[in-house]
Design brief:
This protein is mostly beta strands. The protein is built from two helices and 36 strands. Strand 34 and strand 35 form a beta hairpin. It is globular and about 55 Å long.
């Protein structure tokens, strides 16, 4: 066998390591051409998730919940595991699977070891300075593996509820809705899962364009297997309430998450917006929202003109006074929508305004406030990609979970499944029809006899695109503490083209 043959087989073997199966087929050129057009979907065989450091507050407690949904048809069989480790081995206060610090188990003891699909696991820590976590899952645990981090802060800046789904590493993130204003402390947390250092650029855009950096060198070095928090207001002397932050890795890859804290309105994690698109959906504005502020940015060379619609329980309407929105290229635009939902749940839909030119892609986010006066609390909802197959919210409680589903176009049918609880129980499912142009807000089904946290998985069964988010509400006295997580597709499967090269010709 010559060297060319070995390289092709090596490529196929690498594909199998990622997706579970790869095949080499011989035959005529016509057969190869036909097969090349076909592609199957296989469950992923390895997943990586990164959780930011939850809080430095002495009056905070954090719950981590991990879950992988069961796959129909026996997909992803065999053995596997999913676990997280502290990003920095020198960190203290890492929770173990029983809920305390690792202590005698060592600083690299695994957090949340998950060994089988369909059964969530959870752990808690109330120690200040808990580290960022780096996790991997393989085998049947990898497809749809989800980890939720939920932090309750009793007092001080950011008091209330902060939640985020741990995210996969990438090289490009957009965060519309960040701030360098005096009333906010926004940190971007950059976590590097790899051994080599990553070089990251942080660029911010305000209402008048790019914010001038304090230094000519804007790059941030994130050492291997570590995390770096950066206070956004230290990167520029310009103060702006509405900022779009662009995180790009010029080398390596990172996880990025923005933690926003406000003395008066509490705070939350700002999830990254979906990739720039000409039409976007922002799902899950609570019915009792007292204010909503929309932030939009056009990253390309062209301005964007958008129609603004509110998809409510029965139809879509245009918010009074906000029929359209013009976004100048390179400048962040923001509008106050007030109590736009008027007591009913809804979602925002942004679509191109009719015109002669091509539509312009945008990124967008929404800052939502509940409560009034000194009892206000804030959360953030980004533009969220559609669920192609399934998506999961891992941490749900006996009370306080609300699921929002919006179908921007055609009517869609979805199945919502609640897993068993961390303390046992029987899964439960409900099927819902989401009428086109509307938002369906539901309390997800609860597992029978469950104790502890449980996961909720949304599966799109038929019809048009569906976008979703989950709100978790855990009131603190008079403060309506809450957090909202978007539910993009979990990418639990990958499209694998059939290999069609006839290797026999390589030995001639």
């Amino acid at each position: 066998m010559n060297r060319t043959t070995l390289s092709l087989i090596g490529a196929a073997t690498a594909l199998a390591a990622v997706t579970g199966v790869a095949s080499l087929t011989g035959g005529s050129s016509d057969d190869a051409s036909t097969a090349a057009k076909a592609a199957g979907r296989l469950p992923v065989q390895r997943s990586t998730l990164l959780c930011p450091a939850p809080s430095s507050s002495d009056v905070s407690s954090t719950t981590y919940t991990a879950y992988t949904p069961k796959r129909s048809g026996g997909a992803g069989g065999g053995s596997g595991t999913g676990e997280l480790l502290p990003a920095d081995s020198a960190s203290d206060g890492v929770p173990d699977e029983e809920g305390g610090a690792t202590g005698g188990k060592g600083k690299n003891a695994p957090v949340l070891p998950l060994k089988r699909p369909g059964a969530p696991v959870t752990t808690d820590t109330d120690r200040s300075g808990a580290p960022a976590l780096i996790g991997t899952a393989d085998g049947p645990i990898a497809p749809g593996w989800t980890v939720q981090q939920t932090t309750e802060i009793d007092a001080g800046s950011g008091r209330g509820l902060m939640g985020t789904a741990c995210t996969a590493p990438d090289t490009d993130f957009w965060f519309p809705g960040a701030s360098t204003g005096k009333d906010r402390q926004d940190f971007v947390h950059l976590t590097n899962p790899d051994e080599r250092a990553a070089e990251v650029d942080l660029t911010m855009f305000g209402p008048n364009g790019r914010l001038k950096p304090v230094s000519d060198d804007e790059s941030i070095t994130v050492p291997g297997r570590s995390t770096v928090p950066v206070l956004l207001s230290t990167l520029t002397d310009q103060r702006a309430t509405d900022v779009s932050l662009h995180v790009t890795a010029r080398s390596g890859r990172v996880g990025a998450a923005v933690q926003a804290a406000d003395e008066k309105r509490g705070g939350d994690w700002i999830p990254a917006s979906a990739a720039p698109a000409t039409s976007v959906a922002i799902p899950g504005i609570p019915a009792d929202a007292t204010s909503a502020r929309l932030v939009v940015f056009a990253p390309g060379a062209d301005d964007a003109d958008l129609k603004v619609r509110l998809a409510g329980p029965t139809s879509s309407i245009t918010p009074a006074g906000h029929e359209s929105l013009h976004i100048k290229s390179g400048m962040t635009s923001a509008i106050d929508l007030g109590d736009v939902t008027k007591g009913e749940p809804g979602s925002l839909l942004l679509t191109p305004e009719g015109g002669a030119g091509p539509a312009t892609p945008v990124v967008a986010g929404l800052q939502v406030t509940r409560g009034k006066g000194s009892d206000q609390e804030t959360a953030f909802i980004p533009a969220t990609g559609a669920i192609e197959r399934s998506a999961t919210a891992a941490d749900n409680r006996a009370k306080g979970s609300t699921l929002s589903l919006v179908a921007p176009g055609a009517t869609a049918k979805v199945r919502v499944t609640a897993s068993a609880g961390t303390g046992g129980g029987t899964p439960a499912s409900e099927t819902y029809t989401v009428k086109g142009g509307t938002t369906k807000s539901v309390t997800p089904p609860k597992p029978s006899g469950a104790k502890g946290q449980y996961a909720v998985t949304v599966e799109r069964l038929s019809g048009g695109p569906v976008h979703a988010s989950r709100m978790l509400s855990l009131p603190q006295g008079g403060v309506p503490a809450f957090t909202i997580q978007p539910l993009p597709d979990d990418r639990g499967t990958v499209e694998v083209p059939q290999a069609t090269q006839d290797l026999s010709v390589l030995n001639r």
